[in-house]
Protein 1
Amino acid sequence: MLTDIMLGQYFPGNSFVHKLDPRSKIVLTLTFITSIFLATNYIAYLTVGLFICMIVLVSGIPVKIVLRSIKPLWIILLLTAGIHLFMTPGTTLVAWGPLSITDEGVKQGVQMSARLIYLILISSLLTFTTSPIALTDAIERLLSPLKRVKLPVHELAMMMTIALRFVPTLLEETDRIMKAQMARGADFTSGNIIKRGQNMVPILVPLFISAFRRADELATAMEARCYRGGENRTRMKELQLGLRDVVAAMVLAVLIGLLGWLRWG
Amino acid sequence: MSIELQNISYTYMPGTPYCREALREVSLTIEPGEFIGIIGHTGSGKSTLVQHLNGLLRPTAGSVKLNGSEMHERKKSLKLVRQKVGMVFQYPEHQLFEETVFDDVAFGPRNLGLSNDEVQERVESALECVGLNVAEMSKRSPFRLSGGQMRRVAIAGVIALRPEYLVLDEPSAGLDPCGRDEIYAQILQLYRSSGMAVVLVTHNMEDVARMAKRLLVMDHGRIRYDGPPAALFHDETIQLHDFGVSLPHVTALLKTLRARGLDLDDTLQDEDAVVEAIQAALQRKRDSSC
């Protein structure tokens, strides 16, 4: 049912990748994504691919699960590959009427799709190996310089944390309410769009009521523990950069060096 | 004519690290007119089990039959199943959504496609069943009622389906002792007057010991005991504590007194009878020692 949906899709583990500081993971991921653009030939793309394979192996996340993350975006992938395949001018390889595939088209199509796949894979690896809470923590710390320009960084991060925290709770709640109404003969799977929309009312009303109730209770509980925003707030688990993060940065530097050499060397 | 579960297993989120086996090869037959109590500690699989009774969950393995026909064969048959097997969830008041009490209770009967007169008749009798005044209640908003009243409206919403089997998952959770007694008294009365089978899920031994004729003890997704409650309390081979449940207070007291040498019948359940028995036993002891 609904609760089977993996959200935040965090995969608990104990690997090198899991143990990296979330801040360095975010920065390194962004750097990696940028460095993909250095690749211009098949060998460079292959290198990047091997590098991702290496991270997957080190992280210990089942390959099947990692590959599953591409599935929701296959239409975009197909479109990208198709457009590049047919629309790039150059030496014609095959032609059907107005459609023609060119040598350059094949190259572009393959490389653009590879680029997209790499992008999806590496960003899912980030969410696979980092708990949502660690992610928002890291984002808060990374954005903290923006406090000088009066951006409420702490409040934004807290909102994100709370929202993430309650997604599974609300999913569970939705599941329960749906089952309760189904037990009373409600039907959510048949009828036209308008009918189906009407059928949602018995779910949405109780769901909203419970969401507001939870929000209210949480606010009271936070106030009861003297929560007053981010001013002078300390943390139980301080984020700390370690040797691991240096090693990871060096590995990435080697990859970037290799890509640079393949391009200009 | 019965609900039959054959070797059903259920696993939540298979193939992920969150995968959890909630039921392991459970077999169970529920006959019409039975009063069954299901007891077990949190996470023993009792809620998962009862959600199979009306086809809300589809077992990962095994089969569920209602009156001899497979429940999950066709989508149509599921609707019929849900009319025959009524299900009251934990905190059922959280499912209320209509503007008036009447409309909320009428939700189920209207989904059955009944005529307006029939709906009206069913709603009124269901509200009476749970001890709510029809004239006073039916035009009020369910959200302006007290917690206990809201729960009774929600239960009425299921009773109005006129099921042959009524499943109640922790109907007394979060109610004060007074509200709890009232709810149980109404369930018992409904059971006696309508003849529908009742399946009561709880982790409170007191409730089941008094009402259920047949008791199921669940632990780690398996049924560990299936039989009359009295026999369970006196079976020395079963360590109830291992299953995370305890004896009813009355039985525990009688057992302790017996162990201390008082001649008592420890199968008694009714509190007044127990008080009398203890007094009589004390008297006998005094007489014999003089």
Protein 2
Amino acid sequence: MSETCKVSAERRGDVAILWTDGYINNQGGEEIAREAYAQLDQGVRALVLNLEKTRIVNSIGISILIEVLEKVMDRKGVLAFCGLTPTIDKTFRIMGLAQYAEIFPTQDEALRKVSAQSA
Amino acid sequence: MTMPVSPAGLEELWKRIGSILETDAPLPSRIAEAAVAATGARDAALYVRDRDAWVRAGEGLGLDADGHAVPEPLPEGIFVRDGDLWLPLAVEGEIHGLLRLLGVEAAPESSNALAFVLGAVLGAHRLARQVRDAEFELKARLLELESLYDLGLSLGGQLDLSALADEVLFRSISLTDAGKGTLALVEPSGALVLERSVGDDVFSARDVKTWSLPEGGVINNEAASTPTAGLPLATCEKCLVVSIAVPGRRLGVLAVADKESRDGRVLDFTATDARLLSLFANQAAAAIETARLHRDAIEKERMERELELAAAIQRQILPRDLPEVPGLEIAAKNVPTRQVGGDYFDLFPLSRGRLGFVVADVSGKGIPAALLVSTVHAAVHLQIDEAPTIADLVGRIDRHLQRYAATRKFLTCFFGVIEPDTGTMRYVSAGHNPALLRRADGRIEQLGATGVPLGMFPKAQWKEQEVTLGRGELLCVYTDGVTEALDARDEEFGLGRLADLLAAPARPSELCAKVFAAVDAFAEGVPQYDDQTLLLVSRKG
């Protein structure tokens, strides 16, 4: 079996924080998408993805994250990333995710910025 | 397939469906809704090609998917089948989709225009997706290049093998879209250094030693049924395996397995994947070798520091000045090798004008030998005034070594006590090289061992012998570093050469210098690996 990615979420006001733990591949990406769409369906418009427990992302995972990002943008929402390893940070910047979703070093910074944007 | 469509007809149609097509709804829904609005159909569904089959795209407008298969073979152009109208949505003759309009039994006048417009929309969408996919692919290739560059930089300064292995494994899995991977590093002996896996192990690290992977690695896209290169694979469907190696030596194995796709299928690994993984493995090999060399250099530096310290301790132990003993003339010299050896000599002025002395050679070199020398030195100084006889003194030191010496080492030694007035010398030789006695007439006598080396056998005993040193006669005690000094042809200096040098009458200090000069000349600059110690005592005439 591949390394299983676990995703947990918590609502903080208008913002939902999603924590990933493991490899963001097809399975991990789908888990993130499922949780993100559930949050969007509950009216959340701002998502923070904390990836501090993720060390690997593949292109399938990235394409799913792009789909999630597009859906968030379709709903006039905002998505931010935090806790990225330097390798994943660079990957997101090259693959274009950082064009539409800001990357923050810490969750607190991401929450502050995203809360202000979604207010 | 080109359809005759008038501009007026198109304009008219666009007025009716343009606003629907411009919404944010998913494309299949927009197309179906526009088709319903344009034709008054009860419902509509869009079918698109997925590999070899037509599949329903999107959710449609409540259409039940069952029993709505696309007719095979597909009739050409617009057609009606079972009370439904089918519109091929094509651009430049390529059909991008099939639109099914329920309850439309005859093609309305606007059918061609509708097929043209919706075909163009679907074609544009496909083109946009292709552009996006191509852009994604391009970025993925750029990421590969950047990763290679970054890995080179990162590994260049990475001396921690564990971090290095993680870096290589994570990037390998990530960039080949593998579901899992394993990296194992081994010693030249085959012993496992470390193993890392993401997901289940692709292989068992204990098998690494016996693998015979061909250069460039192995792509095994039928791993489950056809193990390759004697590769006992664990749980995977398809795998890609490369060696981590420097010329002539395998450092480890890197494997990734089960390449993922968006639809959950396990894809074949490609030649590009293999090339990428080989590049990663090459970078890893260079970095691992660098880390190893660095580790070795640090270890060597540490050893050298320790040896310097040990040498300093040993220098402190050896006597700085030789005692002045009336009636005797003494010369001694110790030449240590670069590595700390285990030679030791000492002289002890005793009561009634006697002189005690010892020359010892500890087995081994380096720190353990230096520690043993230090132990012997302490034991001798503690016991020299307590022991009633030399044999007893040697026995006490032996028992001390058996009890307290940290390592299983032994030493040979020659202990003697000379009474200058009478020339009587009592001695014990514990497995030591024969001491040489130059008699007044120039003859050389050998004083052989009177017992086994110290620290070797429990409860060993030593005989004490007595010999008389006549006036002008000379005693020479040495270590094997002198007689076993090697020249470039690996020939030893030998006892004979030493004896010949001693035969000619001379003062001990002159003889001492002469012996060392002769040994030096004999060795012709060949580095020696054993300490050289020489003690000469003559009884004044």
